[in-house]
Design goal:
The chain is α+β, with helices and mostly antiparallel strands. The chain has a single domain, classed as Translation Initiation Factor IF3. 32% of the residues lie in helices and 33% in strands. A four-stranded mixed β-sheet has the order 1-2-4-3, covered by helices on one side. β1, α1 and β2 form a beta-alpha-beta unit. The protein is globular. The termini are close together. The mean pLDDT is 95.
């Protein structure tokens, strides 16, 4: 398994977190991508986008927001 890719989308408003996630997933057939966001809206939008692309989604609540973990 390859390295974990981390996308820091904290402080960004939609659609920027989704666009950064889309860029990170481009060309990946499998792996693990962790997207850091600080709002529930961004968490929901990134999760929905990834699920639509066939990635499994897990969310960890952090002190400063959420870590959306995408795996395939």
């Amino acid at each position: 398994m390859s390295d974990v890719i981390t996308v820091n989308a904290r402080g960004l408003s939609c659609p920027q977190p989704v666009m950064l996630t889309k860029k990170a997933l481009a060309g990946l057939d499998s792996g693990r991508v962790e997207v850091l966001v600080d709002t529930a809206t961004s968490r929901n939008n990134v999760s929905r986008f990834a699920e639509n692309k066939g990635w499994s989604v897990d969310v960890e609540e952090l002190d400063e927001g959420f870590k959306v973990i995408l795996e395939k």
